[in-house]
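Recap from last week: sequence in, structure out.
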Amino acid sequence: MTERIREFLRVRRERGIDEGPVLVVDLEVVRDNYTAFAKALPDTRVFYAVKANPAPEVLSLLAGLGSCFDTASVAEIEMALAAGATPDRISYGNTIKKERDIARAFALGIRLFAVDCKAEVEKIARVAPGSRVFCRILSDCVGAEWPLSRKFGCEPGMAVDVLEHGLKLGLEPYGVSFHVGSQQRNQHAWDRALASAAAVFRECGERGMNLSMVNLGGGFPTKYLKNVPTVKTYGNAIFKALRKHFGNRIPETIIEPGRGMVGNAGIIETEVVLVSKKSEEDDVRWVYLDIGKFGGLAETMDESIRYPIRTTRDGDAMTPCVLAGPTCDSADVLYEKTPYPLPVSLEIGDKLLIEGTGAYTTTYSAVAFNGFEPLKSYHI
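Predicted structure tokens:
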């Protein structure tokens, strides 16, 4: 909780403003985070992952600071351009793209595309001739609190064939990318992935392709209930791994922070709608909030992300609670496998603060499920 957010919420309460759950993001924290990433890896370009929080205020701030942008759709490309980024500072990083979307991106000036199979290469060659392509390889994601599936990427050995296919079709084989898993708390996870990337570089070189770039992906965590290493710690570990696997011929590198850039900048204020039990003998209470999985807290799925929660009654005796959202959907339960300790004195109408919610909340909020409005947000 920054003083700026605290004051913003105080003024709203004094004025009697109540719009339901609301996200408040402190842009000064985003600025500080960008500076930390830029200093931690000074020779690496920062490509902010727009999907984490595409608010115009966030994008304009980062564009002004010199950030580049990782985008997953034409809409995100247009957002980055509208914020002031030039096309050469934008990557189309989704490996699953409609051919007409590739064509539109190319018309907007985008020349850097992600691939992970020959069919995707062929689409790009047809409608974005001469573009640069980088191939995403699979990573084991060990150590990540939100591991990624095998949906994106290919085996490193296959990546060489994919890039060579691009060369034959007139594209520029530019590099390799990977993602070590979201909320990756192990700073050494990049070592294993860079070993695979270096192997791809070597085999490509043997086939006459001199790759230029390694996309180190995202995965940089924000602090929830557990402490996480500093950005500087990650930077030192990544640089050592680069030297280990590439020697003195370190390639161009880029990173794609999303959660690590905006996660700790935001707080959601929510209201207790109901407190109840399922039986008189039950020791666990159910606390229903006016926000749930469909209102922006989708990352509580499988309880992978456990947000810090603050109340006005902190310091009172605590009891385990199941947290749930307001919708008429039985899946809208946040923490049941591991109940969340909350004050016994908690009452209907109390306000709770859910910290670390600057990333992946507004973008996951449903448009109007059960008639509930999308999560409102303010960027101050």
